[in-house]
Amino acid sequence: MVTQDSKCSGFLGTIEAFQLMEKNVVAVIGPQSSGIGHVISHVVNELHVPLLSFAATDPTLSASEYPYFLRTTISDYFQMNAVASIVDYYQWKRVTAIFVDDDYGRGGVLALGDALAAKRAKISYKAAIPPNSNLDVINDVLFRANMMESRVMVVHANPDTGMRIFSVANKLQMMTSGYVWIVTDWLAAVLGSSASRDIKDMSDIQGLIVLRQHTPESDAKNKFISKWNSLARSRNINSGLNSYGFYAYDTVWTVARAIDQFLNSGQQINFSTDPTLYDSNGSTMHLSTLKLFDGGEQMLRQLLLTNFTGVTGPVQYDSDRNLVRPAYDILNIGGSGSRFIGYWSNHSGLSVAAPEILYQKQPNTSTSAQQLYNVVWPGGSTTTPRGWVFPNNGQPLRVGVPIKSSFKELVSGKGPDNVRGYCIDIFNAAAKLLPYPVTYQFVTIGDGTRNPIYIDIIRRVAANSLDAAVGDFAIVRNGTQLAEYTQPYIESGLVIVAPVKKATRSAWAFLKPFTLEMWCVTGALFILVGIVVWLLEHRINEEFRGPPRRQITTIFWFSFSTMFYSHKHRKRAWAVCVDNMVVRCADHHFKLYC
Predict the structure, then answer these.
(1) E-assigned strands of 455-579?
(2) Fewer CB within 10 A of the end CB, N or C, for the chain?
(3) pLDDT by residue (tens digit) across 303-331?
(4) What is the largest CA-CA distance in the chain?
(5) Which parts pass through the membrane (predicted)?
């Protein structure tokens, strides 16, 4: 085994790769960073030497571009899907991505954007930090990120820059209540490898949600940890063992098994000269010493057929050259350590049951099946933050409102700050239902004495002088060619509006069909009839004679009785003869009076 140290430098990694290839190697284990992995992959592709990396998690290191690259750890593609599942679980819609601006950071954030889009969320702001930045540069980047509306921060960085981010964030009061920090597995690796943790560093990261590659408990894992601890004590090694150490151990066994299978199949380890590599005149790079591994393709095939159980669990590759059963532990930093709040796997999403148990069941990624334990958020709060605030530098939407002289119940106002009406209430209610902040200001159009031209308002929206318009707009053909309308929220047509009063039960309910004036006129008519009948009957009908009091009583009684029943006795009604006209009397006799 030949070792080379690139010291996390892309330039040194390239030089070390060339020096390593001069020694006719059949496989390369490493590097520990995605950036150097991109560089070395070009070298091994040319020389047909398989490259196995237990730490290069950048998903853009794909087999289609680098056929001899094999990732022996979990790709960040799955880690960003885990982050997206957490964001969706708490119903946040926008996040701020804070990352180191290199191959590792850009590749991870690209995968994060795709994963969030599948959950109908998005990255609202990308805070890129140049590699090896000092505290002042980080302070400027975080200050701009803090001006945005999202309070959900996803940090994807390397250990050195990452710890500076939290130190600066703490000084900017960004580790207080209302903020959410989701950190990828680099922080779990730092905490796992640190035997004695700095109390100050732990105070900077309270309330964080951290992902860590899941390695199931097993006897092989426990034995390896025991051997490592014994070795660390005997050699005074202060570094602990993290999940990347487990994957490095399994990577060595993967290469050893593949070489053994390669030799047992009768293959020979031979190298040949690459005709495309030669030294130009005066060159001292000695490119001609680099040899092609003739059995590289067969060795790669043996590596892809790997199938054994290591300290990290099943070591096997799918058709996309990814490890099968990717899973993550989800931790919550608190006090001097961390506590477990759940798992994520691409089989069943978020759960509190171990992935190796769920893999034995049918996959269930429905929303109702997702589950996590309670989280203590930054600031010590146990209430889930809403994940956003109104931005400090955002421009409010300009919403046009027509002010007219008619139908003021729908929309009216005397200025931008005094706009009201049914349409305005609908707009305000819809804005409150949005899962993210939207600031807006009303722009009144019209003086209230004459109706403004509505198509002109729509043209202003199309011309970007207004962002939207609210009012009793009718959907017309000319308008649909300029702007988009919402769904109608008022049904068109003619309606009758009548006041509704609550009816009360009363014995006088029979009087309600007519007004008081109508009842007075009706009563007067009955009395008039009674008087007319009295005038006609009192001379010949004894019932209408007698003292004045009796006659008045008879008149009123006759008037009242005619309302309820008809009289059975005859009444003699005489008509007045005018100009010798013969009239028919009530008793069916014809008489003539002149």
Answers:
(1) 468-469
(2) N
(3) 999 999 999 999 999 999 999 999 999 99
(4) 158
(5) 516-536
